[in-house]
Design goal:
8-stranded parallel β-barrel, alpha/beta, 12 helices
């Protein structure tokens, strides 16, 4: 199981001296002391509206937003990522969860054929810092950039400023970066995914969430991901989980992303929260067993099936 000490946390130079210890503490919390990130993505209520929470193939428990927080509390996660308002409504009842506040969001109603995607910042950092002062366990921020959109410069400028301010206050930042817009013909092109990873590094992000790159004739998705992981440098690269698949398929993909692709974690939403509470909790433990403790797929699957326990 990978473990890091406080002295091994690499602190960016834009973290103010008075915030250095808080940054280290937040980094260790978010990565559960491993340097790897298990991010439970709960931002889809804006991004995908209610179709990801109610309907065929989705457990009825997911219709209630508190389902997300029950999973985050009872499962094994590094951070629960959601919008400020969502976290504000439930955090008092779930103070033990590590929260990552998603600073921008947009719905999927306006299609790329109508307009290039732009996800504006929903509030300023002061609103988040006020929540932290009030006792909410906020360890980081998240922000989405649509690389290739005609609005990419605005989003990059917002993200760059946000990262500088967050680091100065001892917070981590995870960037969601997706190539998307009329200028982009292949959103999962391996070179574009690697480019997105490099952009995150240049903006100063601690982690970047990307879609797994497409496979090529002579290389798998995980093999292509290794190029992006190198391009990310000291920014940790994690992959989006995508739509729900069976547990064995998902855990196999995750294992390959880490051990072949060089990813340092995962960012999973629908694959977790669309299940019943019991099944979702078991899946967080199986995912964390691979992400945080280097379990094999077979052993992680045993955790998911309830044949083996996992905790940190």
């Amino acid at each position: 199981m990978p473990n890091i000490t406080r002295d091994q946390v690499r602190v960016p130079a834009d973290v103010m001296p008075e915030s250095r210890e808080e940054y280290i503490e937040n980094y260790l919390k978010a990565t559960r002391g491993t340097g790897r990130l298990m991010l439970f993505a709960c931002d889809q209520k804006i991004e995908h509206l209610n179709k990801d929470f109610y309907g065929e193939g989705i457990d009825i428990a997911d219709a209630e937003p508190e389902h997300l927080f029950k999973i985050g509390s009872q499962g094994v996660c590094g951070v629960l990522a959601g919008q400020r308002g969502l976290i504000a409504q439930y955090a008092a009842d779930y103070p033990e969860i590590n929260y990552l506040v998603k600073m921008n969001s947009k719905t999927n109603l306006v299609k790329t054929s109508q307009d290039d995607p732009y996800s504006p910042q929903l509030h300023d950092l002061d609103a988040v810092l006020a929540m932290r002062e009030a006792g909410v366990n906020i360890v980081g921020l998240g922000y989405t950039i649509y690389l290739g959109s005609e609005y990419e410069s605005t989003m990059m400028a917002e993200a760059g400023q946000l990262i500088a301010q967050a680091h100065a206050n001892g917070l981590l930042v995870v960037l969601w970066i997706y190539p998307r817009g009329k200028a982009v013909t292949a959103e999962k092109d391996p070179a574009l995914i690697a480019g997105a990873a490099g952009v995150a590094l240049c903006l100063g992000a601690d982690f970047v969430k990307v879609n797994p790159p497409s496979a090529c004739e002579d290389s798998t998705s995980a093999e292509n991901l290794s190029i992006a992981a190198k391009a990310a440098g000291r920014t940790g690269l994690v992959c989006a989980g995508g739509s729900t698949v069976d547990a064995e398929t998902f855990l196999t993909q995750l294992h390959d992303q880490i051990h072949i692709g060089g990813a340092c974690g995962n960012a999973t939403g629908r694959n977790i929260h669309q299940r019943s509470l019991d099944e979702a909790v078991r899946l967080t433990k199986a995912i964390s067993a691979i992400t945080l403790a280097d379990y094999s797929v077979a052993d992680a699957l045993a955790v998911f099936n309830g044949e083996k326990d996992f905790s940190l």
